[in-house]
Amino acid sequence: MPPTSTITTSRKRVFNSVFSASPALGPFSTTDNPPLKSIDPLATSRSFDDSQLTEPDEPGPDQETWDRAWDAATAFLAVPDRGFAALGAFEDIDEDVFLKRWNRHERPSRKTADALRVLVSQEQRGSIIDWYGQEIRRHFLKNFRDGLFDLLCYPEKEGLLQRIVRCLELARRIYFTRLAEYILPLLDASEKERAFLKLHRTFHHMVAYSSALPWDRVSALLNREFTKEALTILGIDALKEEAARGDVSIDEDMEVDREFSVSYRRWREEPSVDARMEMMTENEDAEVVAARDRLLSLLNGLQLVGLGGDKAQKVFAGVMNSMMIEFVLAAYPGQWEGPSLVSQHLRHWVENVFARLVVQVLAIINVPESGKSSEHLDVNLSDVEKWYETGFTCVGTLRMRELFDVMVEWPASSGAIDDLRRFTTNPATRLYFTLSFASVLCDRLLHPGASTVEILQLYISIIRALNLLDPKGVLLDRVARPIRRYLRDRDDTVKVIVGGLLADPDAEGQPAPSTRETLAELSAELTKAHQNSLQNDGDELDWNDMNWMPDPVDAAPDFRKSKTADVIGSLISLFESKETFVKEMQNMLAERLLQKRTDYVQEMSVLELLKLRFGDNALQACEVMMRDIFDSRRVDGVIRNDQGLVQSTTPDEPTEEIPDLHAKILSHFFWPDIQEQAFKVPEEITALQQRYSTGFESLKPSRKLTWLNNLGQVTVELDLDDRVFVDEVTTWQAAVIYAFQSTTPDDKQPPVTKTLEQLTQELQMSPALVRSACLFWISKRILTEPQRDTYRVLETLPSGENEPGTTAEPNTTDDINDDTSAAASAAAAADAAAAAAAKESAEAAAMEKMNLYWQFIVGMLTNQGAMPLQQIVMMLKMVVPGGFPFSNEELREFLAGMVSKGKLEVSGGKYKIVP
Amino acid sequence: MFAGKRLSKELAKMQGHLPPGITFAKSDNLEEWQMDIRVLDDNPLYQNQIYRLKFTFSQKYPIEPPEVQFISLPASHETPRPIPIHPHIYSNGIICLDLLSTAGWSPVQTVESVCMSIQSMLTANTRDERPPGDSDFVSYNKRRPRDINFQYDDDNV
Amino acid sequence: MKVTFKEWNAVATWRWDMPDDDVCGICRVQFDGTCPTCKFPGDDCALLLGKCGHSFHMHCLMTWIQQEASKGLCPMCRQKFEWKGNEEDGNATQNTQDITQDTTQDIQA
Q1: Domain that holds residue B24
Q2: Per-residue pLDDT, A738
Q3: Cα separations (Å) of B36 from B20, B101, C105?
Q4: Is residue A810 scored above 50 in pLDDT?
Q5: Burial label, A16 (beta-carbon count in 10 A; 0-12, 13-18, 19+)
Q6: In chain A, where are the structural domains located?
Q7: Count of domains in chain B?
């Protein structure tokens, strides 16, 4: 047989053995070993060319021997087509049995061994190895490809990736056993490696590029596994559990809890630095160790079967990136205590936990294909630094999102500001900061549902917090603008501010006249501000300030630090002119100075401090008011003395007892307009007032007095049949009860009874005021109202049953009618009841009136959509016949009530009907 | 202090109400104000014409009189203001009026009352002439108006 | 029932015995206010009532009278300014120039 024909035959044999039963080849695209190249007549195949070229020069074993050897070897090496089912059954079968089943276990016969040796020893040996490569490929495509593909159709299956990896490992085992056992030993070292790598690569390409395992599906699986194990290994799972268990149980669990923890709170609470270090590095618990082992062994498998490498690294990088976010979101929300240790804790975690996992993983999947582990480190310091920076950016974003609540919690949340300070260091983050915070403020604070006190309170916190965050004040300047604009539109802003300034630091004493809470901390702030130097108020640069820094680049053109420097200054500068402020101060001061108090220390200090700020001139009126009160005391003494109004001090001289008349004399020009509600005071008092006026006019010539009878306080003593009542009341209450005095004190006459009309006539007092006074006296159990608008003195407290008609004392019960203390407690109860009743009825009346307009409002909001308060007010003023009689503030309260009833909702400062 | 408070009061009052023919032109500060006046009758000398008065106040106003004179704005100006012709008004705007001199001044005068006096001084005038020696005075006078020793010998105007 | 007032704390306002809302012709501030140099009304910033019927804040009139140009005349009516309550001294100018804050009480008495 001519050699050429032999070659042709052998070549045909090779073709046949490889391609005879070959199914469609699928998308093989490898450049290394294109399966179709032999079909292309122009392509060259090393093995065949070799044999062609070397044949004439180097005669090998004769053709027949070669043919026989080839047949024997290929028969021995060929992998039986047992299908995927046989592979998939690995779980149940012992490995030996398994390999036997795949015909991989029996040793070659002598003849076959010789044949192998012959084939391998030849220069053409490449061809048998090539053939085996083709055989593997053929076999894989025919037997395993579809099975693997089918596995991927159920991606949610637990442990799927592991199963796939295991299958591939076994397939590899099947393919490589005979190679490793019978062919490689026949080769010298370099040939051995070349041959092994060749087939190794063939296998990897098959796995990677056959359509059996599309990467997008595998990567999803890989992502899932990575994520699952990383959550445990990085301690994130434990953090979430901890959070889920809640704060309460934490302390109890401490003893039995795992020692390994990445919890920021526990780390923070641990005083010892060493113990902190150990917390994350030592004593990993079994769960973490197991997860780590699982992950690493999975990765080993992946890498072995060709699913590791670059593509797996990409998946891993993606997972670790989201782990960073997960960790930050699990570890730091709500952890705002100052000073913040978040940055140290994060660095510690990145270096010891995060980086450790990365190193371990990359050690497996970052191996170059040559199989040799390279000398260079997979992770270097700059990587760690980058991760840390990424993590801290997450912290910054988290804090940004939490900022509103951080402000609400201020100053307990100063740690969060520490964190943000490292975040707001460049113009981009600063811009993000101001924009996002401003929009949160609009949504959550600057709407009609928030009270002015709340808004101011938060504004104060923002001022303080942002002064720490950015001492230059640029961020504050930007954030504060919308708040300030909004506050200027609120009717009661000035009132709240001034009320806060004047609030008594010790809130004891008298309860605030309005039930609304006051911004009392302003008064504390005022005192504090006074202690700090006020010289920074100037606009001039301090040329001696060696620490001077230019304003940041994002400062607004009209930015001025001094404006926003301190809380009081910020609030006062809300209003363009100080007059608004001073006027309100005047009103509040008037109210307080006219109360009966012994000293006005708080008022004095507020006034002094405001003078420093506004200058003496602006506060002249307030100063005059204060001075009036102090002067009045002195003048009062002089006049009472001159006019013989002072009670005789000698008790044995029984002079006629006269009331002690005292007066506060005001310089009316400097006081706010005082509403006058004229009425006739008892003649006895008028007479005394006349004497007092005479005294004043002789002391201060060319001046005259005008009495403001609705102002002042009176101590009355009421002598009833069964009791004596003493209390301090208003002048009009005193005047009303005086009208019920018995004309003949000794006679046993029926209790004095008067109607509302009679009283109105007699006292020349408005019916409303009369009624109000009567209600007061009913609550004190001095008067009763036997029928509507008729009042009668309650000379003796009822015993036993409730007096019919004493509507204001529903709590009078049988067991409290014996002694005076019982009566007193009944009076107290009645007092409370009456007050509640009065308040209720007032509120009900207001609601009733407001309800008239509710229909207008509903109609408007239905027809025209959501509207802000201002617009509603404007519309009401236009559509309500006779005008809308309520203030913005009253309407705001009414609408807030409707919001709480679920009839309205507020969003973005606009009210809308709840559908 | 004194001048400031007093002028603030006057300003506040004038923003509420001013007599006919007198309007507020300009007050950039509390040292110099400008007022526009016109006569109310149909005196042909001044008909359909508006004149601009400049008030300059010292720190001691109203104890000391303000300096008051007419100023002119050219015809090309959007609000042209000539100097009114009058035997007691020099062509440079200086007014020879007793109540504006140190001797004739009283602190109860106000910007408003001064304007009214000048308004009536124009209303009553019938002579289409400048004071004698007007061109010499305009060329050589360097004194402040209130220190010039005018002779108030002509009671007709 | 017998009603006894143990103590009555009243409130009153004072004003100069002048027509309401009358202003001082010099400073244009209400008499019940203060002249531009004073902080407190009343005792500190007294009025001078002229015989001619015109009144001024004392400090305002003083500043005027001290001007040589005033010639001691009332700014309103250009009569010699003499204040009520000091009849025996005809030379008002002389006296107004003597007035100081310390003697306010005496003048008014």
Answers
A1: 3-127
A2: 93
A3: 11, 21, 46
A4: no
A5: exposed
A6: 63-213, 214-243+259-374, 865-913
A7: 1
What does the alpha-carbon distance between residue A905 and residue A449 come to, in Å, rounded to a whole number? 9
Work out the angle at residue C30's Cα, subtended by the Cα atoms of residues C29 and C34, and round it to the nearest 5 degrees.
70
Find out whether A812 and A784 touch, Cβ atoms under 8 Å.
no
According to the model, what pLDDT value does residue C104 have?
40
Three-state DSSP state, A705: strand
Which residue of B lies nearest to C71 if distances are taken between CA atoms? B103
Q: What are phi and psi of C4, to 5 degrees?
A: -120, 130
pLDDT in tens, A126-149: 677 788 888 888 888 887 888 878
**Inter-chain CB proximity B64 and C63 less than 8 Å:** no
What is the value of pTM for the model shown? Answer: 0.61
pLDDT of B35 reads 94
Euclidean distance between CA atoms C4 and A894, whole angstroms: 44
Is the pLDDT higher at B114 or at C106? B114
Nearest-by-CA chain C residue for A714: C8
Tokens (6 digits) for A822: 């019982």
Q: What is the average per-residue pLDDT within A273-294?
A: 77
Whose tokens are 């002079």? That residue is: A655
> For residue range C35-62, what is the model confidence (pLDDT) as tens digits?
988 999 988 898 888 888 888 999 999 8
Q: Is the pLDDT of residue A905 over 90?
A: no
B157 part of a folded domain: no
User: Does the residue B9 lie in any domain?
Assistant: yes
The CA-atom distances, in angstroms, between A691 and each of A657, A695, A698 are: 16, 6, 11
What is d(CA A88, CA A92) in angstroms, rounded to the nearest whole number? 9
SS (H, E, C) A357-372: HHHHHHHHHCCCCCCC
| Mutate: best of A702, A732, A741, partner C, most C CBs <10 A | A702
Q: Which residues does chain A have within 8 Å of residue C10's beta carbon, measured at their own beta carbons?
A: 661-664, 685, 689, 692, 707-709, 711-712, 731
The mean pLDDT value of chain A amounts to: 75
Q: Which residues of B are catalytic?
A: 96
Q: Which of A591, A667, A688, A718 to mutate to test binding with chain C, by most C CBs within 10 Å of its CB? A: A667
Quick one: tokens of A819? 């002694």
The SS3 assignment for A807 reads: coil
Q: Report CB contact under 8 Å: B106, C36.
A: no
Q: What pLDDT is stored for residue A745 in this prediction?
A: 59
Instruction: Specify whether the CB–CB gap between A751 and A794 falls below 8 A.
Output: yes
CA distance B95 to A532: 57
pLDDT digits (tens, 9 = 90+) for A654-685: 556 788 999 999 998 899 887 677 889 999 99
Hey, which chains touch B, using 3+ CB pairs under 8 Å? C
Would you state the structure tokens that stand for residue A777, as one six-digit string? 């006296």
Cis peptide before A411 (omega within 30 of 0): yes
- Tell me the average pLDDT across A61-89: 75
ipTM entry: 0.82
Cα–Cα nearest to A498, from A596, A579, A399, A378: A579
Name residues whose C-beta falls within 8 Å of residue A495's C-beta, 6 or more positions apart in sequence.
A584, A588
Q: What is the CATH number of domain C1-109?
A: 3.30.40.10
Cis peptide before A35 (omega within 30 of 0): no
Model confidence pLDDT, tens digit, residues A326-335: 888 888 888 8
In chain C, residues with a C-beta closer than 8 Å to the C-beta of A668 are 13-15, 32
Taking residues A103-116, report their average pLDDT: 76
HEC profile of A591-614:
HHHCCCCCCCHHHHHHHHHHHHHH
Nearest chain B Cα to C73, which residue? B106
In DSSP terms, A725 is beta-bridged to: A718
Alpha-carbon torsion (A271, A275, A281, A283), positive or negative: negative
CATH of the domain at B111: 3.10.110.10
Give residue for tokens 């001013």: B18
pLDDT of residue B81: 92
Strand order in the sheet with A724-730: A660-667, C2-16, A703-719, A724-730
